[in-house]
Each structure stands twice: as C-alpha cells, then as structure tokens.
Description:
Elements: H1 2-14, H2 20-24, H3 28-47, E1 55-62, E2 67-74, E3 81-87, E4 109-120, E5 123-128, H4 133-138, E6 148-151, E7 160-161, H5 164-179, E8 186-190, H6 196-203, H7 212-228, E9 232-236, E10 242-246
Parallel strand pairs: 1-8, 6-7
Antiparallel strand pairs: 1-2, 2-3, 4-5, 4-8, 5-6, 9-10
Helix pairs in contact: 3-5
Amino acid sequence: MVLFHLFFAWLMFLMPPNDFKQEQKRYPRVRQAYSDQEQRALAALKACNIEPTEMQLYIRAFKQEDEIELWGKNRQDSTYQLIETFEVCSKSGILGPKREEGDYQVPEGFYHIDRFNPYSTFYLSLGINYPNRSDRILGNESALGGDIFIHGECVTIGCLPIQNEPIKALYIYCVEAKNNGQQNIPVSIFPARLSNAKLNELLESTDNAKHEGLWKDLQQAFLLFNEHKQLPNITFLKDGRHGVSLAK
C-alpha cells in the first residue's frame, strides 16, 4: 500500500499542468470540496486581486500560535499577499524540530508540498517533504520517520490538522496552483512568530539551546519575508544549517 501511495504521488507530480485539476476532481472528496468551498476561495482571491489562473502560493505555519497562513500572488507580481489564516486545531509534541520517528514532533524548517491525497484517512491531506536535507543531517539517520501532512479532522501525532472545511479550501488553493504549473508550493514551519523578543524568550530555556542554530535561520527567513513580502532563497549547508538571503 505504501508503494502504491508513492507511485500515485509520483504520477500526480509528473502530470502536465492543466490536467492535474481534472485528475483530482475524479475523487468524490475533491469534487465535494469544490462544491462547498470554491466560492469562498474565489472571493478571497478577488479581494487580493489574484487571478486563480495566475496564482502562486506560499504557506507559513506557526506552532505556538496554532496558525497556518496562506500567502499568494499573481505569477508576474513581485510580492505576496495574505489570503487566509487557518487554525491548527490539535497538536502534539513541543516546540523544536522533529528528529526521529515516534517523537510526536511537528517538523520545523523549510519544506514544500510533495503529495496530494484525495482519499486520506483524515479527509484530505497535503504532504510535506519531511525529512529535508537538514533533517537528514541533524536527525536520527536510521529512523527519521515521515508522512507529515496538513490534513482535515482534528487529531495528530506530528501533523498539522485544520479540520475538514478549512482543508477543503486549502486543498482547492493548492490544486489550482499546481494546475497553473507551480511544481513546488513552499511551506515554512516555525516554532513561533520569531520576533527578536520571542526568539530571546524561547532561548532562555536551556532545553532550547540545541535549537538555536535552526531557530536563527528560521528567524532570518521570517523577518525577511515580513519586511519584503518576497520568498527568501534557502540553501542547505553541510552542517545542517541554512543559507538565507533575499531573492535577487
């Protein structure tokens, strides 16, 4: 069954643009999502002057605040706008990255959507490409775990659940972006909204000292995006840290 799911995900991402939406709408839950939430999504995009056929997305998640932000722009635009904020309705683990299978942690770092699951146990789900290169360097190499999703329902052992009606809307946005040709929808997962004061507060705990490098990398990306509303360039370094710079 795992091999089937991997093959299905691979097939979905090889599918030419403009065919992806048609393929997804073969599934009853996706059709229901469009029936229930398409008008909500279209209204939100109209308010931001974003054309559905030109839309590109960026997702930010904040663990302490239990929020997922959806940002978007037209393909030719230079800056992103906030489209919607979704409430994370259940969580597991504590602040800090995921380092091994079974630790119940939600990952922290720089990821992207790598799977669309229209028949998920948790209604609909969007897969996150954990473990990334940093996780493989800094985590338990022999047992990193996987299968991290943004999904419906309200249960989790390391995922980001947002209940069924919100996941319908988020799933639609992501299907439309993928159908437009956006191969990777970036997802940044932060421990919190990393202002200088918040980072200092988190690092006051000796238990958090081991996360300082990652959190400083995440903070740099957080602050750059807040100031410029542009995606920063992220590179993965040999020690598990990140290079973070503003796109030129």
